[in-house]
Amino acid sequence: MPSLTHGHSRDGVLTRTYRAWKAIKTRCTNPNQKQWKDYGGRGIRMCQEWTDSFEAFYAHIGPAPSDQHTIERKETSKGYEPGNVRWATKLEQARNKRSNRMLTFNGQTRCVTEWGEITGIGGRTLAKRLHDGWSINDALTIPKGCSVGALRLITFDGKTRALHEWGVETTLGGAVIGERLRLGWSVEEALTLPKGTRRRVLP
Fold first, then answer.
1. Strand-pair partners of 87
2. For the chain, domain boundaries
3. H/E run at residue 9
4. Most C-beta atoms within 10 A of its C-beta, which of 25, 135, 167, 182?
């Protein structure tokens, strides 16, 4: 084992920072390591300066903030090099996975999980909407529980509202109103008849 500076061995136990450096170096350089296929095997490298010197790595990254932090690459297509690594928690790293789709909306780019939290819609709901062919704008702006059809504008009694807004105002719910209109009910019938009415009331 190379001699350690900066006090990275305490009573024979290696610090988190040194163990992180060693693990990264191994998975980027050793084809026999089980994680090689996801790192060195797909071209992810540790820069030569860091490969040759733990001290150079430590000078850039510093000590781990806590036991919950591990090394993350900011851009997953790039390797372990100055400017592309940081300490991050598991939650922060999960948001930066290659499998987590990034969405740009109103000039901001965030992952699906984060947009789900910001909008209150939830990451799973957003992912399903996008999988079903929704536009990013619809997926992020239509309230949870509403369909694309919920944006349909309906005018009644001198007021124009989106279907889901009428659902809230009448307490009938957008789904009930939408189904009534689909079955041929008039707007007045759809918006005014009590929930549970089973057949259309004819004039």
1. 71
2. 9-94, 102-141, 148-192
3. strand 9-10
4. 167
Full-model pTM: 0.46
d(CA 151, CA 10): 62
Helix (H, G, I), strand (E, B) or coil at 25: helix
Summarised one tens digit per residue, pLDDT across range 71-98 is 988 887 789 999 999 998 876 676 666 5
Asked if 144 and 120 touch (Cβ cutoff 8 Å), the reply is yes
**What pLDDT score was predicted for residue 152?**
73
H helix runs in 132-173, sequence order: 136-141, 163-170
Q: Are 17 and 61 in contact (CB under 8 A)?
A: yes
Q: What are the distances in angstroms from CA 73 to CA 90, 157, 159? A: 13, 57, 52
Q: What is the pLDDT of residue 144?
A: 79
Residue 197 corresponds to which tokens in the numbers above? 């009415």
**Residue 19 to residues 27, 63, 64: CA-CA distances in angstroms?**
12, 11, 11
Provide the token pair at 79.
Answer: 């390797």
How many other C-beta atoms can be found within 10 angstroms of the C-beta atom of residue 79?
19
For 128-135, which contacts have Cβ atoms below 8 Å and span 24 or more sequence positions?
130/101, 130/103
